[in-house]
Specification:
With about 350 residues, the protein is α+β, with helices and mostly antiparallel strands. The protein has 9 helices and 5 strands.
């Protein structure tokens, strides 16, 4: 997350510099408040002028029909004049609103152009909308890049494991089966038993790869049991001492959110074992104010300062949290470990 925030911050600063060059120098514009005040003042001044130079006299109270007709006609004329002037003043806002509706997020590059920006508020609104589109497109490109990079890394990992482990095991099985079929060797029965053992090992490798792609325990046993299985497997593989603290009666989560929680816990423990050189870690799952909170803590060396810009693991966790409608916070101090905290909303009943 910190890496993604730093990348987004630098990109926004770069866009800000570009925007400064694009919008400067900017002409001085009146505010919308000043324009409306001047319009109303002009209408009132016209009323005063008409009363001063016309020979119209109105008795109080109005008792003659001719006087009432004059008052109503003056009122209608003033309202029509006021309506025309206000429509002319507020027309840029209406055009701006119509242009905003034509913006399609799936067609990037379009911006608000061709709007008469006589008032400062309208110009600021158009500029803020364009800047928001810049940030959204930048975030979308960055998210797509991170997602594609993660997919390619996962595909490369699966391809290597299939080639290095499954491929070699099946090659050995093929050779032993050919030897047993040709009667080579002292005991063909032993060769066939060895072939069967190799096949079982290959099946275990296939199950392991499939389990890493999609955790079966999450579908069969639920989130808490899947996290227990994950902690036990990570402790056995890496030698990391992992403490577990899972609260009872946790609120229900959607299937997608449970997968996000599982993947963030998996990434946090993987980072602790591979990169942080930690000896102890803890995983906790609690409930707080309609949310489920996951915390993964280790006693490793902490994150480097400054963070390298290509740390895709933290960016991937942040993307997963956003997809689940939650938030991710990573805190770390050099030599004092790292804490990953994920908050996701509970499923509505």
């Amino acid at each position: 997350m910190a890496v993604a925030v730093a990348t987004e911050r630098s990109a926004i600063e770069e866009m800000s510099r570009q925007d400064d060059g694009r919008h400067a120098p900017e002409p001085r514009r009146r505010s919308l408040f000043t324009t409306l005040f001047l319009v109303n003042a002009a209408v009132l001044a016209l009323v005063v002028l008409l009363l001063a130079i016309t020979p119209i006299s109105i008795s109080s109270p109005v008792i003659r029909p001719s006087e009432l007709v004059v008052v109503l006609a003056a009122f209608l004329v003033l309202m029509a004049l006021h309506l025309l002037v206000l429509r002319r003043v507020l027309s840029p806002l209406q055009k701006l609103s119509a242009l905003m509706k034509t913006i399609d997020p799936t067609r990037p590059g379009r911006r608000l152009e061709g709007v008469p920006l006589r008032e400062a508020e309208v110009a600021a609104l158009a500029r803020a909308f364009n800047d928001m589109l810049d940030r959204l497109e930048l975030e979308r490109r960055e998210s797509a890049r991170v997602a594609l990079a993660a997919q390619e890394r996962e595909r490369l990992r699966v391809a290597r494991e299939l080639h290095d482990e499954i491929g070699q095991s099946l090659t050995a099985v093929t050779l032993r089966a050919e030897r047993a079929a040709n009667g080579v060797g002292a005991d063909p029965t032993a060769e066939l038993r060895a072939v069967a053992e190799d096949i079982h090992e290959s099946l275990d490798d296939v199950r392991r790869i499939a389990r890493e792609l999609r955790p079966e325990a999450l579908d069969d046993l639920g989130l808490v049991n899947a996290l227990i299985t994950l902690c036990s497997r990570m402790a056995a593989q890496s030698g990391l001492q992992i403490e577990r603290d899972f609260a009872r009666d946790l609120p229900s989560l959607s299937d997608e959110t449970e997968l996000v929680v599982y993947r963030v816990a998996q990434e946090g423990l993987t980072n602790a074992a591979r990169h942080a050189r930690a000896s102890k870690a803890s995983v906790s799952l609690t409930a707080a104010a309609g949310e489920v909170v996951l915390r993964v803590t280790d006693d490793g060396v902490g994150l480097p300062t400054p963070l390298p810009p290509n740390t895709a693991g933290l960016a991937g966790m942040r993307e997963r949290a956003l997809l689940a409608g939650g938030s991710l916070r990573v805190s770390s101090e050099p030599g004092r470990g790292t804490t990953v905290e994920l908050r996701v909303p509970a499923a509505t009943p």
